[in-house]
Design brief:
Shape: globular
CATH topology of the domain at 23-31 and 57-90 and 443-709: Rossmann fold
Strand content: 25-35%
Helix content: 10-25%
Oligomer: single chain
Low-confidence stretches: 1-22
CATH superfamily of the domain at 23-31 and 57-90 and 443-709: Alpha/Beta hydrolase fold, catalytic domain
CATH class of the domain at 23-31 and 57-90 and 443-709: Alpha Beta
Strand order of the largest sheet: 32-33-35-34-36-37-38-39
Number of helices: 11
CATH architecture of the domain at 23-31 and 57-90 and 443-709: 3-Layer(aba) Sandwich
Mean pLDDT: 93
Largest sheet: 8 strands, mixed
Length: about 725
């Protein structure tokens, strides 16, 4: 076996092809077979583990306990696991900040001191002032499972509306607190999901969206339809809230209402599931009798409201511009012939725009890393004028840039695979950036390097991929590689700092992340090339990335692990079933794995824009061809697999992972690698998970790879 030259790790890092053949395999809990058979457009499909969809039944609960016991026993035997957890804990013990924003002369941001289970909301009165705690969710539960899911501050900076989530649920209840005193008022708004809050200019209340209260027992499974937009007046009960807008004829429409910075308009973003195309309505708040006006009434493009100059509304849109541009619409003359292009489409996709100090700050993606352009606009010119590119430290991700036209500053974050999120203040009068908050992490960034490569997919499409190893990696095929992907819903994967990936690299591993079709890295065409009937392109891209890593002597299939969560869990499930011989390990997390029934639970119906639905005959055939649950075949040797999910996941319900695990364990030959499932209690899809649970889960995933690949801890 060749020896990898991982600098100081070379002498201590031992790699083996797989677990010892003599090592006993786990004894999986028995899983009963139902006689359930469904008819899909004339084709009979068995669903023997349908009973696992009921996660409240005694039988399912017993199965969960038994599976967790098997997984714990397997991971408890990993001698390196305590060291991995210790190192993760040490590295994660660093300050993390959100991008601040200003209201009423106060600056608001969140901070985690390091190992706090949940982030804490702070405010300061001036840049150099010591921060004051405004809201600490860590005081609300002993296990850290109550999280701050969202917050909004009134225009004068005096009142806070904050949404709380429990056990990782998407359901939120919203409360109101006085900023200066910290006193919580009696206001309570419940059954909020997929919504923020937006204050009226005078602070009299806030706009929000909610669903009707679910029936008892359906909080986690009931289908979320008919969202409604309300106004909550301070000091009143929720039953008295004013209904602003609803559509009883469109169960799949969602509403997000935001008050314009001048306080004059309520701008309503109308979505249909996860489709990027949306409508835009508005209401004139200066007229108590004003009706909601349908400004953009057709679902033919994406429109994102930026700001307004009186009756002129500015939108980022991909209408006739697949990489997006900025358009002005005068609501007094709303016909499309009167629309004006303020910033034309560029070669790079436009991913976000803000208007601060009469400057459009435009965030683009250039081969999946940030490019920020400052465009000046005086309110009179037909088009904004390019001023400069914002200088960034390297190939990374910049985000933030909030503010209002009267502001002279904005804040943004910058991160990369080797740079933890640093917060900068940008002076818009001078163009100078300065560090506002900078975290300190116990590692040496210079010990690592990031490169970007491009490779052809199955159909010849050029796909980018980031690769980050320790400096001096020898390309002799001996390195273990963790290949991470997503590929869906127009979501772009950009460089970002991860403690887990850092520990993996410290152990001599390589982290690789391709930018698959289905994402938004190259605009709407890139996204649409990976949806519905073209979804196989996403899996082909990921498989091609794995093949490239092997062909270019980074690793071998036996030491190649794949990882992804949610839609990325689908990616991992599809690829491990299509090319099981190409991977040594798989880590699907909270995955969409039953593609014939995903639309029947909670918000699953909203994903039809990317997936289609088995209700349609053509979609059914496409879905069945790649559905991970349905592609599993007895006797096929699948890679070692650790499935992770949460028992309170009400977005991708845990039934996906339960059924997939039961079927994969049933199909895996007796002498094949282990198939395990780790089911976290009091946890959801991932958001709001306590730091203790995060560290435990990541330590278990790395320990699993250590045991499967036969790695030894290099020592610190």
């Amino acid at each position: 076996m060749k020896t990898a030259s991982f600098a100081t790790l070379a002498a201590t890092f031992l790699l083996s092809v797989s677990m010892s053949a003599e090592e006993p395999k786990p004894a999986y809990p028995p899983a009963r077979h139902d006689a359930q058979v469904d008819d899909y457009h004339g084709e009979k499909i068995a669903d023997p583990f349908r009973w696992l969809e009921d996660d409240n039944s005694d039988e399912t609960k017993a199965w969960v306990v038994a599976e967790n016991q098997v997984t714990s026993a397997f991971l408890d035997a990993v001698a390196e696991r305590p060291k991995i957890r210790e190192r993760l804990t040490k590295l994660w013990n660093y300050e993390r900040f959100s991008v601040p924003f200003e209201r009423g002369g106060r600056y608001f941001f969140t901070r985690n001191s390091g190992l706090q289970n949940q982030r804490v909301l702070y405010y300061i009165d001036r840049h150099e002032a010591p921060p004051r705690v405004l809201f600490d969710p860590n005081t609300l539960s002993t296990d850290g499972t109550v999280s701050l899911a969202g917050y909004a501050v009134s225009d004068d900076g005096e009142l806070l509306a904050c949404g709380l989530s429990r056990a990782g649920s998407d359901w939120e209840d919203w409360h109101v607190r006085e900023v200066a005193t910290g006193i919580e008022r009696d206001d309570l708004v419940e059954w909020v999901k997929f919504s923020g809050a937006s204050w009226a200019k005078n602070g009299s209340g806030f706009f929000y969206s909610r669903f009707d209260a679910p029936r008892a027992g359906e909080e986690k499974k009931g289908v979320n339809e008919f969202q409604k937009l309300y106004f909550h007046k301070l000091g009143t009960k929720q039953v008295a809230d004013t209904l602003i807008y609803e559509r009883s004829d469109h169960a799949d429409w969602g509403f997000n209402g935001g008050v314009s910075d001048d306080g004059r308009y309520l701008v309503i973003h109308v979505s249909k599931g996860t489709d990027t195309k949306n409508l835009t309505f508005y209401q004139d708040l200066a007229d108590p009798a004003a009706k909601v006006v349908e400004l953009i009434p057709e679902f033919d493009a994406a429109f994102s409201f930026i700001d307004n100059d009186g009756p002129r509304f500015f939108f980022e849109t991909d209408l006739d511009a697949p990489r997006s541009r900025v358009t002005a619409i005068d609501i007094r003359k709303p016909e499309r012939a009167n629309w004006r292009e303020i910033i034309p489409q560029a070669a790079e996709p436009l991913k976000g725009v803000s208007l601060v100090h009469r400057q459009f700050i435009c965030s683009y993606l250039q081969d999946a890393h940030s490019l920020v352009r400052i465009m000046e606009w005086d309110g009179k010119a037909e088009r904004a004028r390019f001023v400069r590119n914002l200088e960034l430290p390297g190939l990374g991700s910049a985000a933030g840039f909030g503010g209002r036209r009267g502001d002279v500053e904005t804040f943004y974050s910058y991160t990369s695979f080797t740079v933890p999120g640093t917060i900068y203040r940008l002076d818009l009068t001078t163009g100078a950036s300065e560090v506002f908050r900078e975290p300190r992490v116990d590692f040496q960034p210079a010990d690592y390097e990031t490169k970007q490569v491009f490779f052809p997919s199955k159909d010849g499409t050029r796909i980018p991929m980031y690769i980050t190893p320790k400096m001096g990696l020898a390309l002799d095929g001996t390195a273990p590689v963790l290949l991470y992907g997503y590929g869906g819903f127009n979501i772009s994967l950009e460089p970002t700092f991860s403690v887990t990936d850092l520990v993996w690299m410290e152990m001599g591993g390589v982290f690789a992340m391709p930018n698959l079709r289905g994402g938004g890295e190259y605009g709407i065409a890139w996204h649409e090339a990976g949806i519905k009937a073209r979804k196989q392109n996403v899996f082909d891209d990921f498989i091609a990335a794995a093949e490239w890593l092997v062909e270019n002597s980074y690793t071998t299939p036996q030491k190649l692990a794949i990882q992804g969560g949610s839609n990325g869990g689908l990616l991992v499930g599809a690829c491990l079933t299509q090319r099981p011989e190409l991977f040594g390990a798989a880590l699907p997390a909270v995955g969409v794995l039953d593609m014939l029934r995903f639309h029947k639970f909670t918000i699953g119906w909203a994903w039809k824009s990317d997936y289609g639905s088995a209700e349609n005959a053509d979609d059914f055939r496409t879905l069945l061809a790649y559905s991970p649950l349905h592609r599993l075949k007895p006797g096929v040797r699948y890679p070692a697999t650790l499935i992770t999910t949460g028992d309170h996941d009400d977005r991708v319900v845990p039934a996906h992972s339960f059924k997939f695990a039961a079927r994969l364990q049933e199909c895996q030959p007796p002498d094949a690698p282990p198939v395990l499932i780790r089911i976290e209690t009091n946890a959801g899809h991932g958001s709001g998970k306590p730091m203790t649970k995060i560290i435990d889960e990541k330590a278990d995933q790395l320990a699993f790879l250590v045991r499967i690949f036969g790695l030894m801890w290099p020592g610190k």
